[in-house]
Amino acid sequence: MPASINRLKPKKSDLAYLRRSCCCSATRKPEHLDGDGQADLTVHGGADKAVYVYPFEHYDYWRDELPGTDLPLGIFGENFTTTGLREEEVNIGDRFHIGTVKLMVTQPRLPCYKLGIRFGQPDMVKRFLTSRRTGFYFRVLQEGEVGAGDTLELVSRDGNNITVANITQLYTREQNNPELFHQAAQLEALPESWRDYFYANAHWRELIDRYHPSILWNDLGYPIGQANEIMAYFYNRVPYGVVNDRFDPGGQLGLHFDFSTPEYSQLTQIESHKWESTRGLGYSFGYNQNDTDLNMISVDELVDLFVDIVSKNGNLLLNIGPKADGSISKVQLERLEGLGKWLDVNGKAIFGSRYWIRAEDLTPERIRVRYTTNKGKLYAILLDEPTFGKVTIPGIILPKKANITMLGVGGKLKWQQYSQNLSITLPHKSLVKKSPAYTLEIGCMPL
Questions:
Q1: Computed over its alpha carbons, how large is the radius of gyration of the chain?
Q2: CA 266 to chain centre
Q3: Which of 71, 224, 248, 425 has the maximal Cβ count within 10 Å?
Q4: pLDDT tens for residues 44-86?
Q5: Which of 193, 191, 164 is nearest to 53 (CA)?
Q6: 391: Cβ–Cβ under 8 A, 6 or more apart, which residues?
Q7: How does DSSP assign 73-137, residue by residue?
């Protein structure tokens, strides 16, 4: 379209002039200008992006930033090029009148990668946002006609006084203002997707500021591409805090994390980087009225799972879902109480423990063994009930004066060294209560 530069300046702060000329007047439709089209309607156009406005005042800035680049009016894809309407002067929710059309300001522009293609600058999207020269969008309140040279006249100012520039600064992390996040989340003129974004961000900040949690546990990758802002806010306020691997700081989950969270799974070997297996007692995260003993993990299976995870440097995050009245169902409670009773006896092998040089073994008697260490002692946890009076643990050599006991049973156990195998005489069955697993405490570390 030919450009017509009108040198008139607005005499009042509530007037702006349309600089982009048209060969004829354009009919304004609710979602776009008649004759205007967008390539990808999943991210472009729509009622909240019906008209894109870009201030003429920004063109001098871009001529300095992009020397040698031809910058005709409309190069930024705007429908209207205006004078007198900068982002820091326009509130979200402000209402305007032009020609026979009534409009309302809705949001700043967040450009996609195609802006970089248009200008031949791969970093153009980043430069556009950090410049804060984003332009903004109008929603059409009343359809009509508009032409080049028409005047945009302010009809009413939104009383919340949150400018287009404020929204951009919140999004690009130039402002860490919890109160402004809360206000933006409740701004009716702002599209719902923006309000949801600001609500979630405000919620994160409130939790961090009020409770200073030691762990920030996220799911589903929210906020997409912006998690570095939340994580930085958290680390600055909780220097020793940790975050999981379900944040998305830049288009991909797990670019930064302090611990990983595999779901309904275990590792086959020791992982030196901290990890946390997460699951429910059944197949649901939360209470499921259809859960029964048949589809829920048993106490024995829960203890075996827990011990296996700890032996490989992991934690177990177990989801417990309350019923509507806040109570815990019987089938869930039975498993929690079973795990608790086992820990009452065997807790020294778990609480504050660390992994050993290897996580597991299988004895000649076909008993599965898992190892942990704690305060200079080695714990060999037998996941299966011994059927013989002795158990032989391969690959362990002890000094002659080493002591071995079974947690929950009094007295030292007899043992013998056969080359690199350790043979331990177990307590009589009458002295040992039936348990999901049995822990041997070796009073010193192997040679």
A1: 33
A2: 22
A3: 248
A4: 458 999 999 999 999 999 999 999 999 999 999 999 999 999 9
A5: 164
A6: 363, 365, 367, 382, 423, 424, 426
A7: TTTT--SEEEES--GGG-BTT-EEEETTEEEEEEEE----THHHHHHT-TTHHHHHHHTT---EE
Residue 378's DSSP bridge partners are 373, 442
- Fill in the amino acid letter for 98: I
**Maximal CA-CA distance, the chain:** 102
Query: How is residue 354 written in tokens?
Result: 């660390």
- Give the C-alpha separation, 78 to 346, whole Å: 69
User: What is the enclosing helix (H) or strand (E) of 325?
Assistant: none
In single-letter form, the type of residue at position 287 comes to Y
pLDDT for 231-284, tens place per residue?
998 999 999 999 999 988 766 777 889 999 999 999 999 999 999 999 999 988
Q: How remote is the C-alpha of 337 from its chain's centroid?
A: 32
What's the CA angle centered on 252, arms 251 and 254, to 5 degrees? 140
Q: Do residues 426 and 391 touch, judged by C-beta distance below 8 A? A: yes
Q: What's the whole-number average pLDDT of the chain?
A: 87
Angle formed at CA 413 by CA 388 and CA 371, multiple of 5 degrees: 75
Whole-number Å distance between alpha carbons of 445 and 447: 7
3-state secondary structure of 236: helix
Write down the pLDDT at residue 251. 66
- Which among 192, 156, 168 is positioned nearest to 87, based on CA atoms? 168
